[in-house]
Amino acid sequence: MTIQRKGDELIIKLPKNIDLNGLQRLIDYIKYNQLTNNSKAKQEDVDKLSSEVNKDWWAKNKYRLLGE
To answer: Is residue 50 part of a domain?
Structure first.
């Protein structure tokens, strides 16, 4: 594995036999960190919003999963 800086980009070279699922999770984590780096949201607020979204999703989709 190597990392090179080229202009305003980083080039990461990995072996072709790397676990792609693990690599995708790592990329998603890096993207998440980049997007939330300057966020002023508190974890409590994020948890509350997440809970509301999950409740709304479940209310709209439970019939598909449970056949109700």
So the answer is: yes
Tell me, yes or no, if the pTM score tops 0.70: no
Q: How many CB atoms lie within 10 A of CB 40?
A: 5
Q: What is the pLDDT of residue 68?
A: 66
- The span from the CA of 46 to the CA of 8, in Å, is 32
Element housing 2 (H / E): strand 2-6
Question: Is 29 a domain residue?
Answer: no
Asked whether residue 59 is assigned to any structural domain, the reply reads: yes
Separation of alpha carbons 44 and 47, rounded Å = 5
Tokens of 48: 């509350």
Within-domain flag for 46? yes
